[in-house]
Amino acid sequence: MSPGKPSAPGVAPSTDVGSSIIGAHAGGVVFGLIFGLIPVFVLNVGYGLDFRQPLDAVGPAQLWWMLAPAAAVLAFTVYGVWARRPVLVNDTWAFEAAPSAVGTVFLLFLWAHHARAFLWPAATFTVLYTISRAARWEATEALGLELDTVPASAGAKTPVAAPSAQPPSSIPSAVSDPAREFPALVPGVSFKDVLGMAREKHSLLEFARDVSTGRRNGALLFGPPGAGKTFLVETLAGELGVPLISVSIARFASVYVNETTQRVVAAFAAAREQAPCLLFFDEIDAVMGHRSATTSEAEAPRIVAALLTELVAIRGRNVMVLAATNFPERLDAAGRREGRFDLKIEIGLPDAETRRAILERGIGKENEARIREGTLELAARHFEGFSIARLSAIAAQARQWLEADPTGKGQVHFTALLHALRKLQGLNLAHRYEGVPGLGELVLDPRTREEIENLAGTMAELEEKERQGSTVTLGAVFYGPPGTGKTLTAKALAKAARWSFVATTGHDLLRADDAMDKVLERASDERPAILFIDEADDILGERTVSPHTRIATNKLFTLLDGERGRIPDVFFIAATNHPEGLDHAAWRRFPLKIAFALPGFREIAHYVAAWLAKRAVACAPEFTPQTASQILAGCSIAEVEIALQQAVNIAVSERARNSSRRLGPGDLTRAVRSLSFG
């Protein structure tokens, strides 16, 4: 395999086993000659030893000089293999180099003292060892394993089959110095820096005691992103005063075949070298997924096998292993079981008390007097479901604003925290609502307008309204004939309240099993938000009439009822043209029912006047908004707009033949007929 060139995925490296073995033996011979020639020189010069005399004429002191180099070579080699560190001889081929080095020293002296009778047996032993070792290497490489004759577990005497981690010789840097690549550091934080989580902290401390006695090992932390899993591990290390090796799975990725496996093994080797310590794998699901799952990565099963073997081998070595994942269901079953991870702890999102404490600490004790009374309690309720990371970022943003206030009199109130949230979300609501009219521009029935404006006021002023006892309900049903402005009104409502607008349809929610979860997750992330379901009768229809949608309908009802607790500040709007087709349970779950009727003469005339005012249209004297409303009676606002535009098109086309042509009632009548309205 050429240096620096990765193998294609799924293709084993074309390593020349014979040349590698020969190279190791050649290195051992050179090593042996260096150690052997030193005593030869000393004996010849210092003692005047004549090498032609028989072996039995050599004195004890001279014999010691002959044996000491061989003993030194053997000691260095054995230590290198046991500690998995290169000690003068590269430990990758230590087993091959050892007999050559030791044998060379002995043969040098035996030959020098005319003990040639020992030359051939020693040479034969070396050759046979080389052949047998090469055969074993080839067999285990073909199986994807290597036979570790010096097990990592203390006191073990039987060979342990371990996943192969032999890398191509062109990438030796992967395990050249595990301790340097994965250093153990003592974090500067402890449990006093963690708010709440009393149960989790107690479980980890108790588990740490069990690890020290060798009874258990392996703690798996799982939960949603941003819940504080990584930080909790760092504080555990600080609390115990033990160094931490924090391994990011991204560091394992490699384009070289087998190098990812080798990095996994190297992480455990680094932990053994730096024990006692904590070894932490973040996002472990990236390297310990189901082996039965279909994957294009040929090395994936070997990585999992290596990880599972090392999790067992590390026990009793004074190393506490921890791992974190957001997706425990993705882990290989053999990795989740006891014996690999004896402790599983769910790290959930912070509760109301913890949320309040996080915000208070983030804003700062020195700014406590500048926090409006009741603000933190209100925020703790509305920010339910937010991660520690997001809450800390909101508080930090509010603190930054306070520090930048030149007057020093600014206060933190709930609306300010919402502004901080919007900045972190990165939403450009002004761009989203470009072209969406204000509520005052909509053509609505007076009763409908009143209901929409009241709702908008409550949503826009959450803090003040809640202090007065008012709350935003779960949702509303917008119902009425097509074209009456239900969708446009929902967008205008979101614009007026400065809430995000997340739109979907009943058909889209039925199209995929996870569609509801995804759209709800997006709405929760962008809250305060309106979740608008257009053509809602597709999914909220009577279940006895549409049994094929029953499962999806039941799931949506479960989400509305709060399967995981109702999500604050997510307002559901279901729009339908056929309210009579909705399931009775749907009506019960949407407290507000807002009807959208066809506009009357007055509403149409008002809309026509506003429409013409925005356009440079030359109208005949007899064409007035009142005249147009008579022609457009019974049309929806959407149809009115289409008819007006078509009438203008007709008038402009005929102006080519008659320059004095103006828009008249006849043009509008022709437009209505051509569009088949009424």
Strand numbers in spatial order across the main sheet: 4-5-6-3-7
| Secondary-structure-derived class | alpha/beta
Q: Work out the strand percent.
A: 5-15%
Poorly predicted ranges (pLDDT <50, ≥5 residues)?
A: 1-18, 81-94, 114-120, 135-174
Rg over CA atoms: 39 Å
Count all strands and give the number: 12
Provide a compact summary of the structure:
By secondary structure, this protein is of the alpha/beta class. Helices cover 49% and strands 9% of the residues. The strands form 3 sheets. It has a 5-stranded parallel sheet with strand order 4-5-6-3-7, with helices on both faces. A 5-stranded parallel sheet has the order 9-10-11-8-12, sandwiched between helices.
Structural write-up:
This protein has 27 helices and twelve strands. The N terminus is likely disordered. It has 678 residues and is an alpha/beta fold. Helix 9 links the parallel strand 5 and strand 6. The chain starts with 16 loop residues before the first helix and ends with a helix. It has a five-stranded parallel sheet with strand order 4-5-6-3-7, with helices on both faces. Strands 9-10-11-8-12 form a five-stranded parallel sheet, with helices on both faces.
